[in-house]
Amino acid sequence: MSTPIQTSSPAISTEAATFIGVDYHKKYSVWHAIDAAGTDLGKGRIEHHSPHDFATLVKRWPNPRIVFEASMNWHWLYEVLEQSMASQHLRETGSGCDF
Fold it and tell me: Do the domain assignments include residue 35?
């Protein structure tokens, strides 16, 4: 008799999380932030010549979760966000967003 394999993701507390989606472009990125209840917290544009603006963005709200598409030059944005110690999720083009 075989035991079924459980395939569940580890629980992630989203109670006080802020979710920030980033649409990365060649010279700038567009962002949109919501809280766990789906309340719109703001949106804007960050020019890439000022990467410290990303650090300011992720420190603006508690428990930030960043999601952005793993497309061309994504590693630059990943490294900038990594320095801000934000939780990041890379998504493939065309996949659904499931924070």
Answer: yes
User: Residue 12: inside a domain, yes or no?
Assistant: no
Residue 70 · residue 92 · CB < 8 Å: yes
pTM, to two decimals: 0.67
Q: Which two tokens stand for residue 67?
A: 């999601």
Q: Is residue 67 part of a domain?
A: yes
Structure tokens at 30: 């567009």
Q: How many domains does the chain have?
A: 1
| Nearest CA-CA partner of 69 in 60, 61, 78 | 78
For the ranges 9-23, 30-44, 46-60, the maximum mean pLDDT occurs at 30-44
Interval 51-70: pLDDT, tens? 788 888 888 888 888 888 77
Residue 47's domain spans which residues?
A: 29-83
In this structure, what is the dihedral angle of CA atoms 53, 91, 94, 6, given to the nearest 10 degrees? -150
Evaluate whether residue 20 is within a structural domain.
no
**pLDDT at position 44 over 90:** yes
